[in-house]
User: Fold this.
Amino acid sequence: MDKITINGNLTSLNEYINIERTNRYQAANIKKKNTEYVYWTAKESNIQKIKERVGIIIIWNSKNRNKDKDNISFAKKFILDGLVEAGILDDDKYDNIIFFQDYFNIIHTTPYIEVYLIKESYIKEHQDKIIKMIKKYLLTK
Assistant:
């Protein structure tokens, strides 16, 4: 299981829509900047290319409740595109992603995003461990 920590927030859906309505070129620039930020963060993590299907758990650690969860998790698009551009994922097509699981925390400090990439072989071998990890997370909230 590999982990990438992205410091700060990425652009939310509502922010992106507002920018896109104003200037579609500026929206394309926002997508590029978010994707590049994830790309460089992923490169710095030194994770090797994953050559099998993956499950992805994303923990969105926000400073407050000002944004809806679906607006926050829209940034998953930037994360996946950044991981593909960084060469960690071969692509983000339907057949290569087993599942997504999103969790949300309010931390009252600097926001960050935790991305766990779980290889299919690891999932098959450690199903019980993964289920315990998720249950533990859910029970502590």
